[in-house]
């Protein structure tokens, strides 16, 4: 089953065409990684997929239901507020810079969204949040504040916070780029564990060997277009396009 489908997505900022006819789909249980140089449009694509930006053209479809649908001229027409709210329940987003509430404890950071937005019973949410913290190796940190944690720990809290909403798809935008190299591994490990549990994920990353190992499909973007995509080992070890080769050679 397709959890997400994006068809012919176009996005401009002023005259700057940032996304040009991007299409992708994500099957349930799939891990799709998006790689590409800085400025190629990866974050904008994630922001369009997660309704933080509006697409100018194309369709956005969650679980077979249109969140935005192209009209006869190709322009994206978005659904009602209620329809967008429903779509939002399907995904979680983990940012590069963690985006935790600094004045909330770890536990409150994780439990607020399911209680306030999800309207779920407090005791159930707290029990689940503690399970998630245990899974993230942070069982002893529930009362800590973000500033008391390392970057890797903060990022694990933000992954727990996203999971607490029980999303069908988890999006990551360069989850390790703000971390010191020695803390990167712990986050990649957590994401690999989620992949082993068949969590559906879309991951923008500069970690090439991680992308090769964890993904079912890799998309290489450059200049707002998908230049090449395919099976991870094939794409990373044996790229066909010159632009892909040039990009990957920087990581060797
Ligand atoms: P990436 O994540 O691949 O580095 P981005 O999606 O952040 O790329 O950016 C793609 C292009 O869109 C860049 O040229 C960037 O300057 C531009 N851009 C991104 N966000 C905005 C914005 N809010 N307003 C104007 N231009 C933007
Ligand atoms: Mg980016």
UniProtKB/TrEMBL annotation:
PROSITE patterns cross-referenced by the UniProt entry: ABC_TRANSPORTER_1, ABC_TRANSPORTER_2
Database matches in Pfam families: ABC_tran (PF00005)
Name listed for the protein in its UniProt record: Polar amino acid transport system ATP-binding protein
A molecular function GO annotation: ABC-type amino acid transporter activity
Subcellular localization, as worded in the UniProt entry: Cell membrane
Keyword ATP-binding found: yes
CDD domains: ABC_HisP_GlnQ
Taxonomic superkingdom: Bacteria
Principal location class: membrane
Membrane topology qualifier: Peripheral membrane protein
């Amino acid at each position: 089953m397709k959890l997400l489908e994006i068809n012919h997505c176009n996005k401009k900022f002023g005259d700057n065409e940032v996304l040009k006819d991007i299409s992708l789909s994500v099957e349930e249980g799939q891990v799709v990684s998006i790689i590409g140089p800085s400025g190629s449009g990866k974050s904008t694509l994630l922001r369009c997929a997660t309704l933080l930006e509006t697409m100018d053209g194309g369709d956005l479809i969650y679980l077979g239901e249109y969140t935005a649908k192209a009209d006869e001229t190709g322009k994206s027409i978005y659904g009602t507020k209620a329809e967008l709210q429903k779509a939002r329940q399907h995904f979680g987003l983990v940012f590069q810079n963690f985006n935790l509430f600094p004045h909330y404890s770890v536990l409150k950071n994780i439990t607020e969204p399911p209680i306030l937005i999800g309207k779920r019973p407090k005791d159930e949410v707290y029990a689940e949040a503690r399970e998630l913290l245990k899974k993230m190796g942070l069982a002893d940190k529930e009362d800590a504040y973000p500033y008391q944690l390392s970057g890797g720990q903060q990022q694990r809290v933000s992954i727990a916070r996203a999971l607490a909403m029980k999303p069908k798809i988890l999006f990551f935008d360069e989850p390790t780029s703000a971390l010191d190299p020695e803390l990167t591994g712990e986050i990649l490990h957590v994401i690999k564990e989620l992949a082993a549990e068949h969590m559906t994920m879309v991951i923008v990353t500069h970690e090439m060997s991680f992308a090769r190992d964890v993904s079912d499909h890799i998309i290489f973007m450059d200049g707002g277009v998908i230049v090449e995509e395919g099976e991870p080992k094939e794409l990373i070890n044996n790229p066909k396009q010159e632009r892909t080769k040039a990009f990957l050679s920087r990581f060797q």
